[in-house]
Specification:
By secondary structure, the protein is an alpha/beta fold. It is built from eleven helices and ten strands. This is Amino acid/amide ABC transporter ATP-binding protein 1, HAAT family (TC 3.A.1.4.-).
Length: 260
Amino acid sequence: MALLEVKGLTKTFGGLVAVNNIDFEMEDKQIVSVIGPNGAGKTTFFNVISGYYPDHEGTITFDGNNLKDLTPERVASYRMARTFQNIKLFPNMLTVENILVGMHLHLNSNIFDIVCNRRRKIKEEAEAYERALELLKYVGLEGKDNELAKNLPYGEQRLLEIARALAIKPKLLLLDEPAAGLNPKETEAMKNFIIKIRDELGHSILLIEHDMKLVMGLSDKITVINYGVKIAEGTPLEVKHNPEVIKAYLGEDTATEEVA
């Protein structure tokens, strides 16, 4: 059974069809990229899957659960986490506090534990804090737990947002343009880090990305969307040499390069 299965997904805004009858599926522990020109419907596709646009046609099944018309919080409770094209951190909170926000789904203390400051609540908070420090270390931000998120360099803010998503313990991690704004060295490091997340933590990863070297270098499968329609799907090599994809997005120069 596919980890994520989408059938006939359609999302309209008034008279505009942003996503049009898309079928899609991915298996557990895959890295799958969604590519296409600006305005192709990629982020809308992510927003529908993750519950931000609940009013849609078609079905979404994740890990055996029907996600249709669920809120983002309910989708996250099934262990689907995401980042955003424009970084969405709590800028005036500490880095460690940003990660703790992502852990709330796994905390079990009730109102009485909190009001009475019971032992269970104290222990749970201490364990969550230690886990947050571990995640900061994992993404390369060790020792920066007491810095405000807004004071981190741009690339480190990207890593912090990923760390917060990892706090959900996701079965599926959605990354919306994780290499946006990064220099070539940072982009290569991001590619290796995404592969590390899959190989070490066992998470499946679905990403939107425009950097084709990164996409070709880490994807098990690529889905191509143009004007809201899926026009191609396959391995990096298959997609790279697909005539419709070359015409719509890649261009002849990209198609003749070696696969990264």
